[in-house]
Write a structure and sequence with these properties.
The chain is α/β, with parallel strands linked by helices. The chain contains eight helices and nine strands. It has a seven-stranded mixed beta sheet with strand order 5-4-3-6-7-9-8, with helices on both faces. It has a two-stranded antiparallel sheet with strand order 1-2. The termini are far apart. It comes from Tolypothrix tenuis PCC 7101.
């Protein structure tokens, strides 16, 4: 945004946290993050989202030991809900920029015997070969990227052809802006997210509403498939 006042031109440009700043912020939050999600109802909302996807038969069927990448795994709340509702035999690869979040994710997944590995990495440069995963799941991570299209293209790269991305982002609105003011993330509306997903080549896009808790007012969930 730019304004001209007399002989002065004033501009305002959005600045996102650096990787180091983001890592430090979430390292500090790791000790209380999982309980925070439970208290605010996100863990339950995640389970209901997976149940809705399961009941609608959107997800690929007849797969047992699928390979799942959770981008921005945090303390593994989204992965735990997936394992509980969809497939307890899945192998989860958890990626996060925060080492402390990864430690918590490892603890939580180990406690319920979910096969997994953890990987500290920037989402913009995933350390995996092309066409590695049967699905990618990603909750409240894309909005932290200065260039979300770049991050999405990297996700698409590691998906196998025909495989789904299940994506959750912070929704534009008053509550979204309050979250944004604290964490420094962006927010999306459905139109913006739809355009972005189509630009990176995902097809069969479907939005799946949250029906419970705070997530109903703060989050958008969708699923798209790699060509």
């Amino acid at each position: 945004m730019e304004w001209t006042i007399g002989w002065w031109q004033i501009s305002v440009q959005r600045v996102y946290p650096s990787n180091a700043q983001l890592s430090q912020t979430y390292n500090q939050a790791a000790s209380w993050w999982h309980q925070h999600l439970q208290l605010l109802g996100y863990s339950h909302a995640y389970r209901e989202l997976w149940r809705s996807l399961k009941n609608s038969n959107i997800l690929p069927q007849n797969q047992d030991k699928v390979s799942i990448c959770d981008c921005g795994i945090g303390t593994a709340a989204f992965s735990l809900a997936f394992a509980q509702i969809i497939n307890p035999n899945a192998h989860i690869t958890g990626v996060d920029i925060s080492s402390e979040m990864l430690n918590k994710a490892h603890q939580k997944l180990s406690q319920v015997n979910v096969a997994h590995r953890i990987c500290q990495s920037d989402l913009n440069a995933l350390p995996f070969a092309d066409h590695t995963f049967d699905a990618v799941i990603c909750a409240h991570t894309l909005e932290h990227l200065p260039n979300p299209e770049q991050g999405l293209r990297e996700i698409v790269r590691v998906l196998r052809p025909g495989a789904p991305l299940i994506l959750v982002v912070t929704q534009s609105g008053l509550l979204g802006w309050l979250i944004q003011s604290y964490w420094g993330n962006r927010c999306f509306n459905q139109e913006e997210l739809s355009k972005l997903i189509h630009e990176v080549g995902l097809t069969q896009l479907q939005f799946v509403p949250f029906t419970l808790g705070l997530a109903r007012f703060t989050s958008i969930a969708c699923i798209g498939f790699k060509r």
